[in-house]
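debug: dumping io for the single-chain case to check the tokenizer round-trip. Nothing else runs in this session.
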Amino acid sequence: MNLSDDRINFLSHEILKTLRTKGGASYPEEAKALAGIKQAFHQFGSLLESVDTQIRNKIGTLKRNIPEGSREWDLLYRQYFDEELSKKGL
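debug: decoded output
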């Protein structure tokens, strides 16, 4: 997941604002809360990149050559992606 720093910053502020207004939560140290939200975005992005690499390697090692972008490749990618996220509890 490649989100720009500006997009992550925007989303972090929106999440914090929503938690404050709809969640009834208050954060006395807003900067720490924002940093935690941003860190979560970066960690999740790293996890998705790792899973993507794993899946591409897995598809690449199949006996038949399945061209990327084909319907079969897309179906396998989605299946393996869902399996990997399930294994990780997501």
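debug: round-trip ok. The mean pLDDT is 90.
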